[in-house]
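Here is one chain, start to finish.
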Amino acid sequence: MRSFVFLLTLALISLPVKPVLAQSDPDYQIEVENNTICSFINSNHVNIRRSPNNRSPVVTRLNRGDVVRAVRQQGNWVEIAARDSGRSPSPYSPLQGWVLNQYINGCSEDQFDRWRP
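Its structure:
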């Protein structure tokens, strides 16, 4: 039993760890600003899912007017990387998930239909 626990501990220690940047970390704020697109949710009670499919677990629900930072589109799904409070000094808070493209628009006029096929 001890050897099993030792091997399990060794396996867990050797797993790669992806650093998580804190919301207040300036690097996180800069990374979000530079690598995402301002977007907003256009309906109420919109499911944000863990993966880009309807069977995936719901991470959270957002409402009309909630501002998010979107990363990319995959089929009819848009990946979200953060919520945007608009308040300095740390407007962005982590939010990893996917939303159907019919429930999200770009913030600016030239980006408004960005997520449509």
